[in-house]
User: What shape does this take?
Amino acid sequence: MSFTWTQATEHAAFSPRVFFSVAEFDNKIWVIGGLNQDGSEKFYNDVWYSTDGISWDLATGSPGFTPRYGHTAVVHDERIWVIGGYDKSHNLKNDIWSSKDGKTWEQATPHAAFRPRLLHTSVVYNDKMWVIGGEIAERPWVYTNDIWYSTNGITWHQATPSAAFTPRIGHASVVADDRMWVIGGVGDAYGKIRFNDSWYSTDGVTWVSMKEPADFSKRYYLAAAATEELRWISGGFDETKSLGDVWVSSDSKSWVLAPSDVLFPPRYGHASIIFNNRLWVIGGQNFKGAYFNDVWHTSVIESSFPHSKLTIYKTVEPWSIKQGTDTEVTITYTNAGSALLHDIEIVDTLPEDFILLSGETGLSVPQSLVPNESRILVYTIRATKPGTFTFPKTSALYAGEGGNYYKGTSNAAVVMVLAPLIPDEEPLYDEPESFFDGLWREMIALFSQ
Assistant: This one.
């Protein structure tokens, strides 16, 4: 297993920088803000984008928010969001900004409910934006491990004032396996308390440690990116040198060094992202003080690693029926990973106004499912009322590589039920006779004698 890194450009159109943010939005990579201290201190708030990593265009040089570094950027509700940071006036920030196109920016709030901060992390998970840890005071430096979330960027709620992991900055966060992850970082201003731990949460309140230490060395100012099943870390700083290694994991417990014949120069404070099925590494600086604006990428081939992935696809045929008639639901589940899957549970939910005629809406599969193997769950239902109905996503729970359990969901399905032009005289299904119906029937029979 080997990876070949390709340099898209040695010098992008944007200035060399560190502690900027990146996002994937509108089929483009976006680079926002950052810092350069090569000779003089330069703070940036420019916004750049590219479709190929080679050619970069300036969306705006004056977005409204102040030049800053150590902020975060996420994509939520069809907008790019910029959260917090440290500006050129040397102020910690907790303002929130968003844009529909990367050019025109609007301030959601000048002061979010959480304390101003920099070098925190942010992810989007369960339709919420999350803010995790960071530096909330300087001289003396104070780091935090509080967790906050918002659905609209205006109103923020505290999930916990103190997560189970140590307060930190310079960590990395991703979403994988239907969980939020925190990886690495540093717990003091002198770089003595460094981490190579991995923590996960499904609610932002309870955080669980996977393994300490991890297979990679302790580091901070690293970058991370993730696909559905894999997470990657690259580079970072260990207080004596900048790092240029890349590690990959399917469970955040076991990490594999991803070797390459050609690798980007060591760096920290850079950014990483998955875009067009490639892992990208952008910018940063090294221990000697050189700042980068180069762009590198390598192919992301999940099949190169043992990983667990169950895909679930739901169909309803026919999808347009008459009230009182039947249709068939088929759920196809496939082992799309490279590891054996077992202890599979599939659970589906019927919308109201449908009755189950045959089959089951759930199953438990004790047998193993080998890679590329597919099986189906089929059941028949009948519509009792007209309308357009959205069938909820099918849920799955399964065990994969290393005995770890994962969750999965299917697509949603839509069924159109049309009312008959001539109503049936017979009921669509047998209803139990009420007491009064029975009494009336007996009275009619009595007077008929």
Summary: The CA atoms of residues 19 and 269 lie 5 Å apart. The mean pLDDT is 90. The chain is about 5% helix and 50% strand.
